Amino acid sequence: MNELTGKKTLEVQSSITMTILLVSFSMLFGTLILGYLIFRARAVQWPPMGVTIPGLFAPSLSTAFILLSSFSYFLMESSFKKLLEKRKAYFFLTELLIICFALSQFNLWSELAKVGINSDSGILGSMMYGFTWIHAGHIVIGFLLISSLYKTIFSNEVSFRGILKVKNFGLIWHFLGIIWILLYLMLFIF
Amino acid sequence: MIFFDSAHAATTNIELPQDMAMWDRIQAPVDISANGHLIMSLFNYTTGMVIFFFILVCIGLFGFSYFYSEKRNKKAYYTYGNKGSHKKVGLIFGMAVFVLIDMAITVQSNNDLVNTFFNFPKGKDVVRVQIMAQQWLWKFRYPGEDNVFNTDDDIVTINDLRLPIDKKVVVQMTSKDVIHSFYLPNVHQKRDAMPGRLSRMWFELKKTGEYDIACAEMCGTHHYIMKAKLTVYTQEEYSNWLNRANNIALAESDPEDLDRYWGWKWEE
Amino acid sequence: MAFYEQHIHAKPKTFLSKYVFSFDHKVIGKQFLWYGIFFLGVGGIMALMIRWALAFPGVAFPVFGSFLFPETGGVIPPDTYASLFTLHGTIMIFYAITPILIGCFGNFCIPLMIGARDMAFPSANMLSFWLAFVSGAVLLASLFTPLGGAAGGWTSYPTLSTLIGSPGVGQTLWTLAIFILGVSSTMGAINYITTVITLRAPGMGYFDMPLTVWGLWLTAILNAIFLPVLGAGCLLLIFDRVFGTHFFLAGAAATSGTGDPILFQHVFWIFGHPEVYILILPAWGIVSDLLSFFSRKPAFGAKATALSMTAITILSTLVYGHHMFTTSMSPLLTQTFMTLTMTISIPSTVFFFNWLGTIWRGSIRFHSPMLFSLGVVFVFGLGGLTGLHLGTVTTDLYLHDTYFVVGHFHYTMAASVLLGGFAGIYFWMPKMFGVMMNETLAKVHFWITMVGLNGVFFGMLILGYGGMHRRLYNPFWYEFLQKLIPINTFVTWSAILMGFAQFFFLWNFIYSLIKGKKAKDNPWEVGTLEWTIPSPAPHYNFDSIPVVKCGPHELGNPALGEEKDFQYQTEELAKV
Predict the structure, then answer these.
(1) pLDDT grade, residue B153 (50/70/90)?
(2) pLDDT for the residue C307
(3) Are strands B137-142 and B127-134 parallel, antiparallel or unpaired?
(4) What is the pLDDT of residue A50?
């Protein structure tokens, strides 16, 4: 079979699948955002009475780590395509930054608990924990996917499938970053 | 019917309407409301149209199956069904259904909603009742002489709703625990009673008597026995009852009994 | 469209790789079939138990009543009854219809009908089945928890489905099972969509695909978009139950709850309405094809049918509020949903008309797949039309949560899909298993099922009009329902008859698998691609990927000679 048409079809398949997957994820997080908007719009007072949102340091730390991890991933991808040696370093950096993000999430949760916001503390607590947990679940999946790229990144050749895989897992990761920014803005800034 | 009834006799002592004709059996509950006929006449119109079009479908289905079986028609007519004439017939069919049924009933229903069912009566002559649904009973609250809810002279009943004929009645309801649905079979309406929200319904009764109230939303183990009684009085009987109940309420009401004060400020 | 030929894998050797952990879409399709038939049986028995309690309250359930309910002497208790109708709905929708119509026919038919060797992602396909298996196990496990299985209705409205109304872990496991199944189906949906778009054989444009594939493809699109919404709802409900969150808790019993139970209803029905179209679209597609095949003429207005199904797919996303007319939503919203719901009539009428146009002036062969397809036309016509009563707000204020709704959705969902599913099984039996089913038994199965089914569901329409509301353990309790009790009993006997009829199918199916008449390659004399290969289909599907030269319904062309009245999709269109 023609090598060229095979590649083209794989590319098309890859785009279609990623599009549908991201649409699916968007619908999931979209439902959460819809819930947030409704609760927010109908609340007499926001934040609800008696609830103080903790300082911005903890969630901003998470934001910083996830943005950096996306950037690091982007650097890894570009150096992978050119088979530069630093792709390996960027791989480890990305993994490290993801772990830092996870740690910063745990930190955020403990900061929330410190100001008395628990999962059973009314609707704001519900959303803060509920939404970040669901996001965290997807981060875990993302982390496993990126980890599985080890062989691809460290191999000594750039395969067509390899490029597609790195691109697609990157899309998922950047998407999760965007979702985090939305959650960050919704729950902690506005 | 004997075979059907023997099992029933083994289980309950209720008197069954043994000799009702089938046509009477399948009728909707007797309509005691002023506006129920709007619902039922629309239902009948829709049913009439549905029967008409379904008969057309059956004529096609059974007719074509008969006349165009392999035995009777050896050669099928080769067409993609995309000729102008085919599309025209399809369009006429589609538009007929849409206009005669869909548009007709939407417009009618919309009018009924705007003019009647969502057009809540206001003013002094309206009977107002608050309903608290809970697992598994109905609590009713009348405002009493002071016309304010949640005061000492409120009449509070359990599973016992009494109303006069020829007066507009507005009920406002909520639930203490799970979602219930306040269903008056003889008024042909129901509304959900939801925790954390107020919902409302209005109607006007035209016939005296005793009728069932049921819960029409799954609410737990005893959903099936969440029954209340609607007693419809003449206006004179109603005022008499109201006075008696008022006096009893004043005598019995205990400000310390917090459970009794489940009412809320009426929202117009 | 660039075309990619998947290469032929070596034939799997071990028992495990052949039948258990197979990547072959045909095997996975069959796995979904066994799974679906098993749960269809479980759901069916539950239905019979429900009907027994409704017609004969206080009477012990026959055969295994006293074994299941020793404390009550075999009588079904109210709590169990609530679990029964909850699980009947859940099982039939998610564990019977979805696996059989979407899991089995989707998996088996799509690659074969579009001329591909397998799905785009065979490993994801296998994972999808095993996730569904885990989900089924979790659901069954939920029945054996101390407080019993879920009992809040398949719609699981809070606050009944929160700890307030359902304290047991059974409800949590139910919600978890649905979530896992949602993940499984979403994976499957992504697989189907990508496969249909990118793996069609050369020459097969979208309108050269059989309508079965259209139905399955549109279903997959709806699944991929809306299952995540249900997933989110399930997760939030699980959080409410396990972590004390307040998404859906409100009202006095919910201490500090400031959530909103109605939010769940919105989320649920945003998924729930497309879901009912998800369930029916494959059957619509199958029937559209089969009516053409057995009338020996092209599907009437095939392109219009495909476009109507697409229009309905799109419109179905806009109408979910008609499930919530009694929740005192704003009048404007209520009226808008009513008007939007009505628009679905137009495309529905178009393809219904096309169905009749297909059999018009045909040369109809009444084999069992055709009988079942004609049955679908009948029951869907009736069921669909009763939707009008429910889509109209004022009549719905009376009919909501009555047996009229139950009759309506059973006609459109249960009857149509069941008959469509049986049509598919009888039709594709030769391709799946290389044997034909016995026609006489099939016809007996059809007629008795039709009689029983109409008795049950038409009876329910009558009960609903008479005012009988839903989810009642004992209708004898109400005065206004007394007169309807003989009708309830009639419905139960019809249900028992319908259940009995399925034994003809089971016997036929099992006997044919073991000793059935060996099938020809193309017993139905039809031109879609799966009939160009041997029966049963070989593991690699096609020797060489076919090149498509004409449409899927090329039957009865007068330019064809005497020997056959149809053309394979690989043949040039015969011209006079």
Answers:
(1) confident
(2) 95
(3) antiparallel
(4) 76
Mean pLDDT of B145-169: 93
Instruction: Please tell me the distance from the alpha carbon of residue C16 to that of residue C20, in angstroms, as a whole number.
Output: 5
In DSSP terms, B202 is beta-bridged to B170
Nearest to C32 by CA among C121, C123, C120, C131: C131
Cβ–Cβ gap A119/C233 under 8 Å: no
Which residue of B40, B114, B117, B218 is the best one to mutate when testing the C interface, meaning the one whose CB has the most C CBs within 10 A?
B218
In the structure encoding, which two tokens stand for residue A172, read together?
């998922």
Cis before C430? omega within 30: no
User: For the residues of C495-544, what is the DSSP string, one character each?
Assistant: HHHHHHHHHHHHHHHHHHHHHPEEPPSSTT---SGGGGS-SSPPTT--SS
Residue among A13, A28, A48 minimizing CB distance to C232:
A28
CA distances from A116 to A49, A134, C241 (A): 13, 21, 20
pLDDT at C68: 87
- pLDDT tens track for A35-69: 999 999 888 888 887 778 888 899 999 999 999 99
φ/ψ (deg, to 5) at C256: -100, 25
Q: Is A67 exposed, middle or buried (0-12, 13-18, 19+ CB in 10 A)?
A: middle
Domains annotated on chain A, with CATH? 6-43+58-189 (1.20.120.80)
Q: How far apart are alpha carbons C19 and C23 in whole angstroms?
A: 9
Reduced to 3 states (helix: H, G, I; strand: E, B; else coil), residue B213 is strand
Whether C53 contacts C473, CB under 8 Å: yes
Class of the domain covering C21-249+258-560:
mainly alpha
Residue contacts between A and C (CB atoms, under 8 Å): 116
Nearest C-alpha of chain C: how many angstroms from A117? 11
Measure CB to CB from residue B221 to each of C82, C350, C395 and give the nearest one: C82
Task: Yes or no: say if C405 and C464 are a contact pair by the CB < 8 Å rule.
Answer: yes
Predicted structure pTM score: 0.94
* Cβ-Cβ contacts under 8 Å, C236 against chain A: 32, 35, 130
Give the sign of the dihedral formed by CA B71, CA B75, CA B80, CA B85: negative
Answer for the pair B138, B158: CB distance below 8 angstroms, yes or no.
yes
* Span C559-566, average pLDDT: 88
- Domain ranges, ordered by start, for chain C: 21-249+258-560
In chain B, the N- to C-terminal Cα span, in Å, equals 51
Give the lowest-confidence range in B9-23, C19-33, C125-139, C243-257: B9-23
Q: What are phi and psi of A63, to 5 degrees?
A: -60, -45
Chains contacting A (3+ CB pairs below 8 angstroms): C
| Residues whose CB is less than 8 angstroms from the CB of residue C247 and which lie 6 or more positions away in sequence, other chains included | A35, A123, A126, A127, A130, C236, C237, C239, C240, C259, C260, C263, C264
- Strands B228-233 vs B160-164: parallel, antiparallel or unpaired: parallel
Dihedral of the alpha carbons of B177, B181, B184, B189, in degrees to the nearest 10: 150
Question: Does residue B14 register a pLDDT over 50?
Answer: no
How far A42 CA lies from chain C's nearest CA (Å)?
A: 10
d(CA C428, CA C105): 9
Q: Summarize the confidence of residues B76-94 as an average pLDDT.
A: 89
DSSP B89-100: HHHHHHHHIIII
Interface confidence (ipTM) of the complex: 0.94
Kindly report, residue by residue over C279-295, the tens digit of the pLDDT: 999 999 999 999 999 99
Helix, strand, or coil (residue C410):
helix
Q: Which helix (H) or strand (E) holds B214?
A: strand B209-215
